[in-house]
Amino acid sequence: MKIQKIKKSTASFDAISTDLFCFGLEKNNDKSSTLELADNHFSGSINKAITLEGFSGKSGKDLLVYGNDNIKRIHISGLGKTDKIDLELLRTVGAKISAKANNIKCETLTIDAESFNLTIDDNLQAFCEGLVLGSYEFLDYKSKVKNANTLTTVLIHGNVTESALITGKVLGESVSFSRDLGNHPPNILTPTLLSQKAEEIAKADNFTFTSIDVSEFENMGMGSFYGVARGATTPAKLILADYKGGGDEAPFALVGKGLTFDSGGISLKPGARMDEMKFDMCGSATVMGVMNAVAELQPKINIIFAIGSTENMPDGDAQRPGDIVTAYNGKTIEILNTDAEGRLVLADVLSYVEDKYKPSGMMDFATLTGAVLVALGDKASGVMGNNDDLMNDVKSASESTMERVWELPLWEEYSKDIKSKIADIKNLGKAGKAGTIAAGVFLKEFVNETPWVHMDIAATAWGPTTPSYMPKSGATGVAVRLVYKLIQNRVK
């Protein structure tokens, strides 16, 4: 079960019927006027509970008070000191509240806008994102479902802007969609199904959809992508969705790595934790999540959504270490390790998009290197690029959404590490050194002068369980909110 409705309410206390009514309280601060009204409505029982429990509004603390037949429970969330309340805190509080509502089997939840300061649009959007993300669950493959979520309806009580509410809900749902894609098993979520799901989204206004089958790759000159796809019996797909919401301006391009399963190919991965390689398509899941949000919210901008999707398998016809392939832009690549395959797929997709669509800028997303986990842990995604203005825009969106990124250099010295003695470049850098950067400088060879940022999400796409709006396990839907914020900032 997921939240079906989040909507505005201005009903009087006497007319409210809800399983849980939530208020915020700042530390050692006066109660909001609406919390005072609620206390009067319940004949002083809320203030008595606050005094009895010594509840001060400290961040992370909460208080539950039982009500009556119409308002069954009153929940008060401690917000901490006023100067510490920001978008991230409101996002996490929203997630905790929806989780609490589900834990106590509520169907309806009412949020007091004034005491959480949700009359400010950015606050409201972040809080609604948290509400949706905090109720996320993935139960598609459970034959017997126990303790499933019950919360279906949330009312935001007060004078709030409905467009901010809707944006927050849609972004939360789009992150959840991205998580679902990542969590599906590889025998279900094949490149064909990923293409079908993209096509469904592209039925929205202003979209044109194209899916190119692996059988066409050689004739198109996509030898790098085709080399990875050769070992898979499931057909690879180049998925393209062209969104025109911004008139005649050049589009912004979002490119995702969609390896629905990565065995490593002939350079076979160790068996331990190979099951996690179903998550190697989380870059494409990010692109799909943003695409879902764009389809719903229709921003006034042009965007190209592009995904290269395949499996990487050790078939008798699979690519070998030592092979040389020719990419779409004509550059030759020496294959030293077939497990460095994501960059080979992205090379052709990036150069194809750059050639055919002449974008104003590009971002790509990929679970590309284990080295980024060593460099940054799971607290930030690694970013690299060729344009300071676009990189600064990405960092600004990161700060707003708290989806952290950290820039790594792409100095010319690193590019020398991928030069091949018998081809133009090779798909590995120096052994054991700067693996994430080596992948970045490899991709840089395929974007020409187009402003471009590469985001390596191998450490953040699955696994992190904090803050509270993160899932307890599995895919996180990383960067969907960040990219949509970037899109909003680029709208003229």
Please give the number of β-strands.
17
What's the CATH topology name of the largest domain? Aminopeptidase
Fourth CATH level, the homologous superfamily of the largest domain: Zn peptidases
Tell me the major beta sheet: 8 strands, mixed
Salient structural properties:
Leucine Aminopeptidase, subunit E, domain 1; about 20% strand; elongated; 15 helices; alpha/beta; 6-stranded mixed β-sheet; 2 domains; Aminopeptidase; about 500 residues
What does this structure look like?
- This protein has 492 residues and is an alpha/beta fold.
- The protein folds into two domains: 5-159, Leucine Aminopeptidase, subunit E, domain 1 (3-Layer(aba) Sandwich); 173-490, Aminopeptidase.
- Helix content is 35%, strand content 20%.
- The strands form three sheets. Strands 7-8-10-9-13-17-14-15 form an eight-stranded mixed sheet, sandwiched between helices.
- The protein starts with a strand and ends with a helix.
Concise overview:
This protein has helices at 33-41, 45-53, 87-103, 121-134, 162-183, 191-201, 217-220, 223-229, 282-297, 342-357, 371-376, 388-401, 412-415, 435-444, 480-490; strands spanning 5-9, 20-26, 62-66, 73-80, 108-112, 153-157, 207-213, 237-244, 252-262, 302-312, 324-326, 332-334, 361-366, 381-385, 405-407, 425-426, 452-456.
Write the layout of secondary structure elements.
Blueprint lengths: L4 E5 L10 E7 L6 H9 L3 H9 L8 E5 L6 E8 L6 H17 L4 E5 L8 H14 L18 E5 L4 H22 L7 H11 L5 E7 L3 H4 L2 H7 L7 E8 L7 E11 L19 H16 L4 E11 L11 E3 L5 E3 L7 H16 L3 E6 L4 H6 L4 E5 L2 H14 L3 E3 L4 H4 L9 E2 L8 H10 L7 E5 L23 H11 L2
Parallel strand pairs: 1-6, 2-4, 2-5, 5-6, 9-10, 9-13, 12-16, 13-17, 14-15
Antiparallel strand pairs: 3-4, 7-8, 8-10, 11-12, 14-17
